[in-house]
Amino acid sequence: MTEVLGRRVPGSPVIVALDVADASAALSLAARLDPQLCRVKVGKELFTRAGPAVVEQLQRAGFEVFLDLKFHDIPTTVAQALRAAADLGVWMVNVHAAGGRRMLDAAVEALTACRRPPLLIGVTVLTSMDASDLAELGYTETVAERVLRLATLTASAGLDGVVCSAQEAPALRRACGEAFALVTPGIRTAGDDAADQRRVVTPAEAVALGADYLVIGRSVTASADPVMALNAILAEISGDAAR
Ligand SMILES: O=c1ccn([C@@H]2O[C@H](COP(=O)(O)O)[C@@H](O)[C@H]2O)c(=O)[nH]1
C-alpha cells in the first residue's frame, strides 16, 4: 500500500502512459523506471505497433500493465476482446461506458469467468473534451452531468471504476462510493503544455480531489529526464515537494 496525502491505495497511484512508437522505445523507457514506483499503460499506438508481446515483456520486467484500448463495440465483440486481454494477465482494462448497459453487462460477465480478472474500468468523457465538444455532438448535459451519468451507469453495471478528469472526482466519490476506482488522465505538472487535453489538473490537485490513479504521459515521457520528472511527481503527491 502507498500513502497518498492520507489516502491509502494499493501500489503506486501513478500510471505512466507509454505512448511511444515501438516496443524498443517502450522497453528502454521502462528499463529506467522502477515498477515499485509506477505502473505503465499500453495504449492504442504502442499496442497497434508492438502487439501483445510488448505487454508480456513489460510484465516480465515487473510492471503491472493497464491495457488502455477503450473497447467500444457490440457486447459480444467487447466480451471476447476482454477475455483476450485477461489472458494476457494485464492489471487493468477499459471500455467506453457510452457502449451502454448491455455492453457493460457483457464486459463484466466476460471477466467474471476469468481466473485472475483485471480491474475493469469505464471511460466517461475523454479528458480532451470540453463543453463545446459535447454541444457539437448534440448533448445538452454539461460535462459534469454526462460524466456523472456514465459513472453511475458504470457503477450500477458492476465495473470497478471509471476514467474521468480529477475535476469530477469529488462528485463521483460521493455518488459511487469509496471502493470505486477513479482513474484520472489529463494530469499536467505546473507550467506544462496542456496540448490536446482540456480538463487538466496538477498531480497534487488530482490526489487532493480524490483520484485513485493518475495517468501521466507527456509530463514524464516528453521530459528531458523522465526519471527525474516522475520522482518530482511522486514527491509532489506524497506531500514532500518544496518542503
Ligand atoms: O479520457 C482520457 C482517457 C485516456 N487518456 C489517455 O491518457 C494518456 C494521457 O497522456 P498525456 O500525455 O498525459 O496527455 C494518453 O495515453 C491518453 O490516451 C486520456 O488522456 N484521457
From TrEMBL:
SMART domains: OMPdecase. Residues 13-233 form the Orotidine 5'-phosphate decarboxylase domain. Transmembrane segments: none annotated. GO terms for biological process: 'de novo' pyrimidine nucleobase biosynthetic process; 'de novo' UMP biosynthetic process. Keywords: Decarboxylase, Lyase, Pyrimidine biosynthesis. The active site is at 68 (for ompdecase activity), 70 (for ompdecase activity), 70 (proton donor), 73 (for ompdecase activity). GO terms for molecular function: orotidine-5'-phosphate decarboxylase activity. Catalyzes the decarboxylation of orotidine 5'-monophosphate (OMP) to uridine 5'-monophosphate (UMP). Homodimer. This is Orotidine 5'-phosphate decarboxylase. The lineage of its organism: Bacteria, Pseudomonadati, Pseudomonadota, Gammaproteobacteria, Cellvibrionales.
